[in-house]
Write a structure and sequence with these properties.
Blueprint: E1 2-9, E2 20-24, H1 30-33, E3 37-41, E4 54-57, E5 60-67, H2 71-78, E6 81-84, E7 97-101, E8 113-117
Parallel strand pairs: 2-3, 6-7
Antiparallel strand pairs: 1-3, 1-8, 2-6, 4-5, 4-8, 5-7
Protein name: PTS sorbitol transporter subunit IIA
InterPro entries: PTS_IIA_glucitol/sorbitol-sp, PTS_IIA_glucitol/sorbitol_sf
GO molecular function, one term: protein-N(PI)-phosphohistidine-sugar phosphotransferase activity
Length: about 120
């Protein structure tokens, strides 16, 4: 398991039209922080998330349905990924995306604990 804590929630991090969250670590620029969730990853482990693994926000657990080819590397290097809480067609999936179900945004705040849990 990899643990993180939400340190900051950007003023424009949530959108009624887009069911997604953009994660970054503390290295995010000021412009990115407005649209992002800033996480502090407390585990020093490379990410290797796969379909079937889960991400929890406090007690809210989400199953990974799809993971883009760049997501694990970007999470490891700059704590960045786009979490998508909705279905997308194959051709519209983004390389840095992690697609999760259920299809609803989690309730989060500063201090929310994120747990990246690998099945294997």
């Amino acid at each position: 398991m990899i643990h993180a804590i939400i340190k900051e929630v950007g003023t424009a991090a949530f959108s009624e039209k887009e069911p997604l969250l953009i994660l970054f670590d503390q290295s995010a620029t000021a412009a990115l922080r407005n649209y992002s969730i800033i996480q502090e990853i407390t585990s020093e482990v490379a990410f290797s998330l796969q379909i079937g693994d889960s991400i929890s926000f406090d007690e809210q657990e989400y199953l990974i349905e799809h993971i883009g080819p760049l997501a694990n590397d970007n999470l490891t290097t700059v704590g960045h990924s786009t979490l998508i809480f909705g279905q997308q067609s194959e051709e519209n999936k983004i390389a840095n995306g992690i697609y999760l179900s259920p299809y609803q945004l989690p309730k989060i705040k500063v201090g929310t604990k994120i747990v990246y849990k690998q099945v294997n």
